[in-house]
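Hi L., both proteins are below.
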Amino acid sequence: MATPIIELQAVGKSFRSADGTSRTVLDGVDFTLHEGEIVALLGQSGSGKSTMLRIMAGLTGADKGQVLYHGMPLYGAARGIRMVFQSFALFPWLTVQKNVELGLEAQGVPEAERERRSAAVIDLIGLSGFEGALPRELSGGMRQRVGIARALVMEPEVLLMDEAFSALDVLTGERLREDILELWEAGKIPTKAILVVSHNIEEAVMMADRVLVFASNPGRVRSELAIGLPRPREDDKLEVRALIDEVYGMMTAGAARPGRTTEKEAKLQLGDRLPPVNIARIEGVLELLTDERHHGRADLPQLGEDTELTDAQLLDVSIVLALLGFANLAHGDITVTPLGEQYVAAGNQERQALFGRQLLEHVPLVAYICHSLAQDSSGDLPEELFLRLLRFTLNAEEATSTLRVAIEWGRYADLFEYTFNTGTIHLPSADAAHES
């Protein structure tokens, strides 16, 4: 058995929002990162993946459970653990070399030693000749290389990468990922284990020895897939495509059509996050699925290529189609239901009526808004009322996004209207008295 480096045992974490409500982000997280492995962590936005990484790095404390580093409780930041962030997090007034040296300087490493180590890692990561450049003079890919170099110069035992490639264009991200893997495989970096948080399923399969799928509300490890293929892996190989399909299946396992599964996650609860998917995308993907090329069924990775959506966008719209009963998800495939076919064939008014019916049946937040409006004598309620409710289970940003989605869907279905300048939601019968 490989040696455990970091262990999370029944870890839980809650945050208190500005209005005083407590929200559980992580609950009962069990995870072990072993020496010699790369692990990829996938999950929806807001599921707590970044919080888990910060707890592993000792930057945030756990409220429940314990974190062990080499079998000893971790209290505070550990020198052997470093993080690379999506946002690059460079100081714009410092040169490449000074940004890379920053951690060494904070530890009191002598100047000559700092220069030697930073020069070595700058060369290793492919930035030779740019030591004196400022971040604004570099491309996005080069700025991220500086962020990675700043982590590697500390000679970390564990490297935690929080969506380190997601802010880059596809080709730049692929090249940087390949370079990191080459350094890892060749033993040119002292790092003994890497944990990568990603939204990109193909990236996870190409890099990792294990892929974990995180559940939401609260965050916890839902499923795991071991990948035994040697690296480097070719994305057009049948075994790699099969693994990508399997991970898509894992990601959508809790999103089968409501009423067709016993999994709690398959049905939305009142305080759940709604995927940020607009009506145009819902209808566009549904219409594409029913065209003469797909005939109502598609492999999700192939559909992603056809639609040019990111993995996160494709998963969100697929989950919405499944939750509304317009499609079924199974084993990485999506199949249009008879109701979905009926929707595509319908005219605008019939589409609105179908959409509204499915919202009321399967989206508790929309049903709750409609019920609250019907019970109020004015038929007119402030959005803040519903935002306060959502902030019991979601953070402020997620609550706002979720309510915006619910309002868009409800307005399209003519279930209620929304007045932007006052932030009020009202019944359609009040249209004459409001400007929406």
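That was the first. Here is the second:
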Amino acid sequence: MTQSLLDTKYPRIGTTIFTVMSALANEHQAINLGQGFPDFSCDPQLIDAVHQAMKNDQNQYPPMAGILELRNKVSEKVANLHAKQYDPIHEITITAGATQAILTVILAVVRPGEEVIVIEPVYDSYIPSIDMAGGKTIPIQMTPIRNDAGVVVRYELPWDELAGAITSKTRLIMINSPHNPTGMVWQAQDLDRLAELVEPTNALICSDEVYEHMVFDQAQHQSVARHPLLANRSFLISSFGKTFHVTGWKVGYVCAPKDLMTEFRKVHQFNVFTVNTPMQYGLAKYLEVPQAYLGLSDFYEQKRNYFQAGLSKTGFSLLPSQGTYFQCVDYSGLKIPEAKLNETDFCQWLTSEIKVAAIPVSAFYRESYDANVIRFCFAKKETTLSSAIERLQRL
């Protein structure tokens, strides 16, 4: 065997759980409720707007920060929703999806050895991005609250641990609301408490808000943009792909104060430079009708309710889903031998034998943490959800 010329630079980084489970779902022809993407089409008017941009020959490089028309629309949207005015010239950048935005924020501000706090379970790109920047990940864990039977019923923010983790070495704190994977949503008092913790420090905030338009039960999304002290030290990240059912387009945006955005763009220009031109023009046109995103919470709340009603007739214990398009469940109460499996093995068994794919929440921790909780995605057609429910009810 020929010896490799390269020892791995990132020994802790493997293939994402989403890739693994989607491949397994394809292999077993399972219903894929694992990876977070819709199986229904976007609005044809959005396709028409992109098509028209292509026909208008808007197909060459756009400005590095994104076309001004789209940045203006983002500025208007944030101002209307959160009463915070970001300057479209200096404070908004269009990105190749939220994951690229997250990596760029970290590369732009984290120096080798500086500390970055993440709150686990955490979206799986955060920690590898910190590793790539040479930063030091400081993971703290949400508290899984259990009932008398030992079943997880919700997650709570670990305020005491967070307060203890913030030091003079903290460069960045990464937050995510609505939260993937748990579906938990930060409240206004949570932002107030975070502000109290960071005010005497130089810590910056990276606020992942890609599910901002999926907040249920008449609640309001609490963006860092709504909080002046946090807004002044935060990168706000969102995603057109999540909002408009076009995850494969990989288009998102970042809002931040001018001094922070200047540093962000230094990295952005060399790791992606800019983003698909006709899609930017199409999105700018589509954003002229705010109802395209203002009605999204009701749309997904109906799907959540339908899916929860079906799962209520199974042995799964449902955790609250306050936002996102994810539903977490505790499977330890199932009356089957497989309920004793760890989360990864249970998800593999569920995919191969029951033909429904899910994601183990343990995959959202740096060091695997099994709580018998898995995550389903309900961003699917009703027929897809119905078929999945029928299979899951056989357990």
